[in-house]
Amino acid sequence: THMAGQEEKPIIYTMENKPIVTCAGDQALFTSLYTSLAQQLPREPMEWRRTYGRAPKMILLEANFVQFKEELLPKEGNKALLTFPFLHIYWTDCCDTEMYKSSVKEDMMRWQNSLRTHGSSDWVIIVVETNDTKKKNKTNILPRSSIVDKIRSDFCNKQSDRCVVLSDPLKDSSRSQESWNSLLLKLRTLLLMSFTKNLGRFEDEMRTLREKRTQPGWSFCEYFMVQEELAFVFEMLQQFEDALVQYDELDALFTQYVLNFGAGDTANWLGSFCAPVRNWSGLLLRRPIDMEKRDSIQRGEASLLDLRSYLFSRQCTLLIFLQRPWEVTQRALELLHNCVQELRLLEVQVLEGALDCWVFLSCLEVLHRIEGCCDPAQLAANCSHTVGLWAAAHTGTVHHGVPEPSGLDFTLHFNSLQSPYKKLKEALSSVEAFERHYLELSHAAMEMYQAIGRLRSARLVGKSLAEFYMRKGDPERAETFLQEALKSYVSEGWSLPVTHTRRQVAECQKLLSKTEDYLQTSALLAGDVNLTTDERKHFCQEILSFTGKSGDQSHKVTLSMGVFAQLTQLKFHPAAASVHSGAVLQVELTLRCLMPVSVRIQQLVASIHFEVDHGGTHGRSKGAQRRTHPGTVVFRQSNSSAGPPSSAGAGPSLELDEIQDRSPSDNSLNSTGVICKNTHLLMRRHDSNSPPDTPNCISPPTVGIKEGAQMLKVQDVTLEPGNNSITFTAPPGTYTLRQLCATVGEVQFILPHIYPSAQYEVYSQEPQLTVEPLSEPLLAGLPQKVKFTLLTGHYTVKKGDALQLSNTETMPILPSTSCTARISSPTSELVGESTLSIQSSEKVTSISLPPAPPYHTLEFQLEVLCIIPSGADRPANERLTNGEVRHRPRSYSHPDTPMTAIDQRMSIDCPWSIYSTLLALTFYIPFKTKHSLLSAGNRKYIQVCVQNVSDVNFALAEVKLTEKQHASLELQSLNTKTQQLLCCKHSVFCLWEVRWKDDLPSCLQCVFSANFSPLSQDISAYKPFHYQFQLERVTTLYSVKAEIFPPAGEQRCRSGVLCGLEVCITRLTEPAEGEIAEDSKTETDGPKTTKLMYEVADSSSNWAVCGKSSGMVLMPMTANATHKVQIEVMPLFAGHLPFPKIKVLKYLPHTAAVAIQPDPDSCVENDSLSLLDKTLDDQGDTASIRSRGSVHSVGSGDQQQKGVAMPRLEPFSPGQVFNHSHACQVLVLPATDDHIMEVNAT
């Protein structure tokens, strides 16, 4: 077929077609109105309500007004819609009755008969009214309405709306415009009605025809032309979506028939499409309709490519009208793929290369068409839609190959104006031109794929380029594209493509003499299970052949271990991976050899890294090893040929360890933290060009063994295919396994990182001695067992070695007849037991140790006793065994317990060190003891309170109180029980009366003693307990008596009535020497006196003190001297009221020296006396007395601060003043008040 003939056929541009409307009657009248009618008709859109429930649409109506001819009316069986007249109009401006009857009516009847004959009912009569027609013949002129009525009665019996009046159409008036609007609305409505009716009838006929497709003789080409007529009408009405639907339905119907044919269901009309393809001119998209192909379809002579090309060109035109050019590219790709499949299904004979030419031309034609309707910016932004066509054009060229220039020339006739044909003709003209065009297409497709991020597709194009270069004998360029493709296959886990591509890479590398790369790839292929055994052996032999060469190379070829063998497991023997120096630690590696044959390794080396942080005597590492069970590290493996991204790119996980900073002096913890041990793996930069170090790598990085590293070595090992075990012996130290290297002749296989990290330790440890209590807490005063633990470390305990413990009085070591030492191994197994020999002297206790090997544990127990301090004078300082001065342990309050704590330090000399070991034990005193002095007149009593603050129940026995300085003094016990129970958190009170013969000493030195024992032990376990204290100013100096007298004439006191309070202060003893020195002297040589201050107050608010509540008394310092004071008080309540509180204090003038002697005994808790009650601060006469304490100054605070000597008050010591009325009560009667109550009665 000659392609130039396409230019000679008439072309129908459907966009210029309009619905045909015929015009009969007065042609001159119509011609004068044509322009206005044609312009105004499409201005207003109309709603077109469709049948079958289809959505209504707004359309603009246009029309092609033609003169009425009977030839235009459709004949029976004519299915052409484009030439179908949808409306018929009769124009007249007749206003003369005679003229209407003579000519117009007859003409109208002929017009109506023609329409009726052809079954057309879509018509309208337009009567035009103008002023000019009225003036022509005034005699015969009738009113316009009468002419219109006649026409309606003659022609529009039941359709009166089919006659429309147009008034003054050429004038610019409102009446004229209204008339035009009415006419246009009527025309649009009639046109839509005609469309709906005629298209509906056409669709019904078309549907009926489609339903007959199973009948013999049905032709798809005939049906195609019918449904395309409907598409043309929709396109004519600018309903492009509906037009596209018609072509899509035809596309789907034809596709289904082809698929049915492939399944064995044939149709007779498909025979024409099975004819051999003789024309492969490609798509023609620059014309709205390819009339040549349409005619061939109409004649039933079209080939499969003709039908598909024409159908797609129509779809392309409509999609561009719909502004969806990118859908064209998508449909074009589907078309190209489907056509190739349909040609195979229909078994159509195609000349070799013709189909590829058709694909190539079609791709370029679509691209050319898209470029013509889009600007460059849109093309660049949407290259993801067009890149598939570039790739398809490239693929068509690849399949086409490199033909002889004249191979297709006899059937191709190129159009010089069409660039796709030019390109194809030029490409087929010579091999060089073909290669140039092929490379242009390939690189264009690759660049577009890369620009839109479709790297897989780009690398697939690159792989075909590599095959092209290999055929051209250019392996260097081919390898680059193959490596890029291999990178995609490996990262995504495509096992078979990886194997195939690696073989191609190996071929390139061998041609390029890239020895290391070729050996690396050969090793990968030798371990690839996708290859046959013979192929694997071939590549393994390639490696072994190279290793057998004795070359003069200065360095060996380094390859990745992962391609040769995989480290699957690591075991430590013993499993703890930590032994002491002298013991044997073995490291067993399990290697899975990937080679198909056994390989002899001259040397297998594991490099180890010394861990500085764990060196020295710090003991064993806390590094967390990822082990399935102790002593075993299992290494994660991935497929040797390809694996998913999770196995290749996930990388190592965090490996954390604890780090501690301890004080070098006492080994106390200063700080702790977390450190990452594998930062060298986590923080390294992953270059996009260098893949991660896994067996999946295309070309694993070359990493050599670190120079100067310590190594574990094994010589002459043969690795069989599968798992192999290799055992190393570890040197002393703390090491981490870092790398693995296998040497085979001139080739080294290196595993650059062993991960997860495996660490072992052959350690050397200093001996350590610890002392700890067997039970908490350690109680002072009772025998307590402490545990001595000796970790021998690297030291061998020999016969005669002994521990020298310094003796102290405060914590003696109790002798024991059976003290046994246990010796256990590092795994806590009992090795032996031995009885210890303990010898004590005045200052040192020597403990002879049994012989013990290194890195064993020696344990024994001793009983110690911490003496409870009694408060006596401190002895001279002692010295420890190391010469240090022993400081007497001081008791202190512990925040976690109510018991008082005592720290006892001991010094131990050890045979393995020239330095002494200082150890400390904390004991807790189970008791708190208090004492108090009680008086009853001149009689004196001493009370001692013992409080149990521990959690143990005790029994107290032989409670005694003695006085150390005065033998004549007798302390009579008032305690009836010889043994008392002292439960935890409870107290026991003991009381003694002090008896004397001559005079009571002013100072007493007392010692309280008792024996105590836990209730769980027998009487032999009783231990002594002493408590010393001192009592000063014991003698009673003054007695105070008070009496309350009722008012005159009353027998009893009454509430609210003043009563008399008489206070009598009596001196009981002569002044002592110390007392004279303290008190002030009078200026004369008369009797010695002292000043006292009394105070009456009532803190319970039972009494109101009226008048002066305090005052000064000048008291002679002679025995039986008496002073009385009268004070008025008022009882505030009735009942038995206690007497008001009466205080007596020393008043010291400003000349007396301040003598404040604090009580040296801190255990006395009742030695402070409050001088004034709080209520006294509010009394007006004692407002100057403010301060609280043992010594009170009478005066302002400002004077005191300036250093001016002021009079002051000093309280008496407990027992110096005895108040006889301290606990007395007096009966107070209620007041006799008369109450008046008013009661009103009604």
TrEMBL record:
Residues 1002-1229 form the TRAPPC10/Trs130 C-terminal domain. Residues 640-653, 1184-1197 have a biased composition (Low complexity). Residues 16-328 form the TRAPPC10/Trs130 N-terminal domain. Residues 770-923 form the TRAPPC10 Ig-like domain. It is found in: Golgi apparatus. The keyword Transport applies. Residues 635-672, 1180-1203 are annotated as: Disordered. Pfam families: Ig_TRAPPC10, TRAPPC10, TRAPPC10_1st. One of its GO terms (cellular component) is TRAPPII protein complex. Keywords: Golgi apparatus, Transport. Its main location: Golgi. InterPro entries: Ig_TRAPPC10 (IPR056917), TPR-like_helical_dom_sf (IPR011990), TRAPPC10/Trs130 (IPR045126), TRAPPC10/Trs130_C (IPR022233), TRAPPC10/Trs130_N (IPR056913). One of its GO terms (biological process) is intra-Golgi vesicle-mediated transport. This is Trafficking protein particle complex subunit 10. It comes from Maylandia zebra (zebra mbuna). The lineage of its organism: Eukaryota, Metazoa, Chordata, Craniata, Vertebrata.
